[in-house]
Amino acid sequence: MTGPGPAPAADGALLTARGLTKHFAVHRGVPGTRSMPGMRGILATRRLARHGFTGRVAAPAVHAVEDVSLTLPAARVTAVVGESGSGKSTLARMLARVIKPTSGEILLGGRPVAASNRGRRAYARQVQLVLQDPFSSLNPVHDVGYHLARPLQVHHLAGNGTSLDETIAGLLERVALTPADQFVHKYPHELSGGQRQRVAIARALAVQPQVLLADEPVSMLDVSIRLGVLNLLSGLREREGLAILYITHDIASARYLADDIVVMYAGQMVESGPARTVTDEPAHPYTQLLLSAAPDPDRAGPPSLAGRGSPPSLVSPPGGCRFHPRCPHAMAVCATSVPPGHQVGTGHVSACWLHASDLAPGQSQPLANHDLTPGEET
Ligand code: SF4
Questions:
Q1: What is the DSSP letter of 191?
Q2: What DSSP assignment string belongs to 39-108?
């Protein structure tokens, strides 16, 4: 059960991200400057000068996430889908407040999060992160009981009318590790990958959160046990009303589990909408490409994503639409102007110039020297 916490905002969102952006500074190019955090201060300036650099130096940065806004309502799963390097895990870590956004804001129950220690602690209790690798997220020298008892003790939730052992047994039952006494004294190496991920989820549930951020929770599990963990997350949404963010590179699993899908490419949101609509009627060429690479028993040929080039460098991403070097429909405008989000259906938004009705003839010309046609490989 979710514990007492903030009520949803007026739009029904428990967690809201507005314009989240994250740039990571890159320290490179000048020998010896790697160990100088932030390249700040007089020492950095002197060292740069010794290597012949004078005047202002624009520090390069990885543009990992740009201007992402989304809402996580109660009792819904929102999937964030994209290739490796699309910024989806960075987004999850910003929402978990593990890393600080460069700009943008996060609202819990419609209110900004207090910067005080108390505010951060309250937020950590309401918004829990489940990581991809359950083996590395559990301490190998402690048993399951310790992993579940610790958050209860840290957040002073142990002993509220129920014994610690009963609370731990209840947590194990909620993630279908039963009978609980067969698991409580086991160590991580004595569990299967799926059981370890269930323990990680039980640990997140221990503090009675309202929001669960699940970062690729099944990608390291054997295919045969992924479905069980996805069904567990689905049950938590339905029985306990949790708002769940499901990060994945697998759009097929997002279609199976999620109510809504957000597609990210090179740090930007390119399409969002109801899961069925986005997967049945994808409006953005990148989503169409992702779907063409998803497992499909009816497809005659092999999936085609691997043949379509790779995501760009996020240190110097392409101008205009970041997908234009890989896009078979790229037009002149795509190389120069960032496409705004266009409403293409109820709650369905696609950031692509193909949906613009007011392009000038010169803007809608096929992109010069861009000979990628649909179906052709790079
Ligand atoms: Fe392709 Fe242009 Fe749409 Fe980008 S904006 S996806 S390059 S058509």
A1: S
A2: G-HHHHHHHHHHTT--S-----EEEEEEEEEEEEETT-EEEEE--TTSSHHHHHHHHTTSS--SEEEEEE
CATH number of residue 232's parent domain: 3.40.50.300
Q: How many domains does the chain have?
A: 1
Mutate which of 288, 338, 352 for ligand 1? The one with the most ligand atoms within 8 Å of its CB, which is 352
pLDDT, one tens digit per residue, over 334-372 is 999 999 999 999 999 999 999 999 999 899 998 877 766
pLDDT tens digits, 247-256 = 999 999 999 9
3-state secondary structure of 205: helix
| Long-range contacts, 162-168 (Cβ 8 Å, 24+) | 167/206
Question: Which residues are CB-contacts of 150 (< 8 A; sequence separation ≥ 6)?
Answer: 203
Task: List the domain range (segments joined by +) for residue 129.
Answer: 13-265
Which residues lie below 8 Å from residue 190, measured CB to CB, with a gap of 6+?
A: none
Q: How far apart are CA 222 and CA 162, in angstroms?
A: 36
Q: Which of 263, 268, 286, 323 has most ligand 1 atoms within 8 Å of its beta carbon, as the pocket-test mutant? A: 323
